[in-house]
Design the sequence.
């Protein structure tokens, strides 16, 4: 039985260091850990990573000028697997990418480095609801004027899981835009740390950097930390951050139970409601649809 489900006409599946299955459209090529998009018409493609214990795998995506791509990524990483992804968006490339982690093992690590040239746009959604501990580091570099990076994360840490995420958006050219909205829920004895970093380097006037990092805690033995950082070396910019860690409202839980829901059902509904703002700030239908689907199953 497969550890994955194919939902797109176009797809590519990686098992450890090899491509084991693919159906790619014209003008999309894969060779030696390099996936190149040269398509002139918008496409949707599914990318699946299956990594066994202690496997390190690196891959590079290159999006040529004016390509438009929707990507659905699924990751199944076993113990101490490490996935490193590099994405290069050339001028006017438009990429929407939905990342779902379906791992079910002790510990894994993911690192992403995304580089955007002039007028490139990358909107990423991360559904981190896996039954595993994870360390994630996602760095977006706005290397061309008018580059636009937006990151949305919905995270659930439960039982004894330890999850930590660092999200960086760095402005290296003027008139660039970066926004991140990271929401987490922690239950049982789960651990969760979110570090949001917005950096505007000197001379990058007219740029905007915004972030929200919020975590809701269900139980007294949870450990949670939401840490916003803004490093601004220019005057003519816009920058903001919001961060908070708070307890679940016991009155909400009581109210839902008084209406006939079990405690588990009530907690599931509260979790869904807390993570739902991630969907509401998205303007791409593909990302919205997949977030709605995975969040509707949270805690089930």
Sequence:
């Amino acid at each position: 039985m497969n550890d994955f489900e194919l939902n797109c006409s176009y797809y590519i599946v990686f098992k450890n260091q090899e491509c084991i299955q693919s159906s790619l459209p014209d003008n999309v090529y894969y060779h030696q850990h390099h996936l190149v998009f040269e398509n002139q018409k918008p496409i949707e493609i599914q990318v699946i990573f299956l990594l066994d214990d202690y496997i390190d795998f690196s891959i590079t995506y290159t999006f040529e000028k004016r390509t438009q791509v929707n990507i659905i990524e699924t990751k199944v990483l076993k113990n101490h697997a490490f996935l490193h992804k590099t994405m290069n968006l050339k001028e006017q490339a438009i990429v929407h990418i939905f990342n779902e982690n379906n791992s079910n093992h002790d510990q894994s690590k993911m690192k992403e480095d995304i580089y955007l040239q002039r007028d490139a746009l990358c909107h990423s959604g991360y559904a981190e609801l896996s039954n595993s501990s994870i360390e994630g580091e996602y760095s977006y570099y706005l290397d061309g004027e008018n580059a636009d990076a937006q990151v949305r994360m919905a995270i659930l840490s439960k039982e004894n899981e330890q999850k930590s995420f660092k999200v960086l958006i760095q402005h290296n050219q003027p008139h660039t835009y970066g926004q991140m909205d990271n929401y987490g829920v922690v239950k049982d004895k789960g651990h969760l740390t979110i570090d949001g970093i917005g950096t505007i380097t000197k001379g990058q006037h007219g740029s905007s950097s915004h972030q929200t990092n919020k975590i809701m805690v269900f139980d007294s033995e949870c450990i949670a930390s939401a840490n916003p950082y803004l490093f601004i070396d220019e005057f003519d910019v816009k920058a903001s951050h919001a961060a908070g860690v708070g307890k679940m409202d016991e009155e909400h839980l009581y109210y839902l139970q008084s209406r006939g829901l079990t405690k588990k059902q009530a907690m599931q509904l509260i979790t869904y409601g807390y993570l739902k703002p991630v969907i509401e700030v998205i303007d791409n239908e593909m990302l919205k649809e997949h977030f709605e689907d995975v969040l509707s199953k949270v805690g089930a």
